């Protein structure tokens, strides 16, 4: 799990801005008053736009867009104390958030959504894209496989878009908007995001039948502990961001400008080569591109994310690159006689390389029909990109090695299948990082 220590990075000349709602209302009132006194004045004063307001601090931009009614309960106080007492935790979370937070805030503003929703990944995953819950919820927004597929997040052997910042943020905000439309209340929408809309609907029906209110606080006694604490936790983070000094917290500066830019790629490329061309470490590259599960990035329409200055280096170095961009291809297991040892010999590599590239644990063997990633050889050097049909359908199916314990065979075969084959047991997720 990568933790970047770069909280800020000035990239490019674009300064992204914000018009605080309060300032907007005040400006409207002043303008209206002036128009009454001098009817022709409105033609002389240009309309105030978001770009006319600049703040270098992204936290300030988030504060100015708060729009969800506050919760004031003992649970909120409890969680404020918990977070405030852990400055190292907040520092690590902020460092990870610094890569993604500008994009999330920008997308929220485009949709006219409350900006405190940008803080939701703090309680979901601590902004760790590699976070994985016991219910198999993944990424900063913690989607389980089934809900991820409902929102078109691709999950196959090569990538898991639940972990990628662009696709998962779009899916999460679309889901939250749908829940808000369903319940007409952001607190209930958040409860449904955590617990599932069906459960919230049942709780509402129960309270209505009892003649009780159906707001979040009134329904909380019907909720599991995680959901009961969910909105108070977000409120706690919201309060800390609103006034960190009040709670003895220092938030690291996060620049109010894009951290990354999108780069198109038109052919398969190794993760290590992409990082080399961008003049980044592999860990830095993976932090911005966590959705890629293999050492090769497939798909001709796939985009990668890079800091602007590294994107420029990437293009310059790519133009001068005189070698193959991908050193990997695929192989389908057609016989039970194909062992990892024989495959390593065939493809001039080691069993450890085969196991690591395909996440094959020790004491497990490949089942016939599996498709695995293997290094290219001189005989396969001219093989083209991995086909889309393979990307969409490939799976690694395992069973206990004959030299291992037979009792693990069923569990091993199921556990190590492609993520896309795992069924969710939860309406969305049950995680709390």
TrEMBL record:
GO terms for biological process: peptidoglycan metabolic process. It comes from the Bacteria. Keywords: Signal. Residues 1-26 form the signal peptide. This is LysM peptidoglycan-binding domain-containing protein. GO terms for cellular component: membrane. One of its GO terms (molecular function) is peptidoglycan lytic transglycosylase activity. Residues 401-433 are annotated as: Disordered. Residues 410-424 have a biased composition (Polar residues). Residues 109-212 form the Transglycosylase SLT domain. InterPro entries: LysM, LysM_dom_sf, Lysozyme-like_dom_sf, Transglyc_AS, Transglycosylase_SLT_dom_1. Belongs to the transglycosylase Slt family. Residues 338-375 form the LysM domain.
């Amino acid at each position: 799990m990568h933790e970047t220590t770069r909280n800020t990075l000035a990239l490019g000349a674009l300064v992204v801005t914000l018009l605080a709602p309060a300032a907007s209302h005040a400006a409207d009132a002043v303008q209206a008053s002036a128009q009454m006194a001098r009817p022709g004045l409105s033609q002389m004063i240009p309309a105030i736009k978001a770009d006319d307001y600049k703040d270098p601090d992204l936290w300030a931009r988030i504060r100015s867009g708060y729009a969800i009614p506050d919760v004031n309960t003992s649970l909120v106080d409890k969680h404020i104390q918990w977070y405030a007492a852990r400055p190292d935790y907040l520092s690590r979370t902020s460092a990870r958030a610094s890569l993604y937070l500008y994009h999330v805030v920008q997308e929220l503003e485009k949709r006219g959504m409350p900006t405190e929703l940008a803080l939701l990944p703090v309680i979901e995953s601590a902004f760790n894209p590699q976070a994985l819950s016991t219910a198999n919820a993944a990424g900063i927004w913690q989607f389980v496989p089934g809900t991820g597929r409902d929102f078109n997040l691709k999950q196959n052997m090569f990538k898991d878009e639940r972990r990628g910042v662009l696709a998962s943020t779009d899916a999460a905000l679309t889901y939250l908007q749908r829940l808000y439309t369903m319940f007409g209340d952001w607190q209930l929408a958040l409860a449904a995001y955590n617990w599932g809309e069906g459960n919230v609907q049942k709780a509402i029906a129960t309270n209505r039948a009892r003649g009780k209110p159906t707001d979040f606080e009134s329904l909380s006694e019907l909720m599991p502990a995680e959901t009961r604490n969910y909105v108070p936790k977000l409120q706690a983070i919201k309060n800390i961001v609103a006034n960190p000094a009040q709670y003895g917290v220092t938030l690291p500066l996060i620049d109010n400008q894009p951290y990354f830019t999108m780069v198109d790629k038109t052919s398969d490329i190794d993760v290590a080569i992409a990082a080399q061309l961008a003049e980044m470490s592999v860990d830095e590259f993976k932090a911005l591109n966590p959705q890629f599960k293999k050492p090769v990035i497939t798909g001709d329409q796939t985009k990668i994310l890079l800091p602007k200055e590294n994107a420029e280096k990437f293009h310059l170095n790519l133009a001068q690159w005189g070698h193959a961009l991908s050193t990997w291809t695929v192989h389908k297991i057609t016989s039970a006689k194909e062992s990892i040892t024989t495959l390593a010999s065939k493809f001039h590599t080691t069993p450890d390389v085969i196991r690591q590239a395909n996440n094959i644990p020790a004491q497990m063997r490949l089942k016939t029909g599996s498709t695995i990633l293997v290094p290219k050889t001189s005989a396969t050097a001219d093989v083209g990109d991995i086909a889309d049909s393979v990307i969409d359908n490939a799976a690694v199916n395992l069973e206990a090695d004959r030299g291992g314990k037979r009792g693990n065979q069923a569990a091993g075969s199921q556990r190590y299948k492609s993520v896309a084959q795992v069924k969710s047991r939860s309406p969305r997720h049950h995680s709390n990082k």
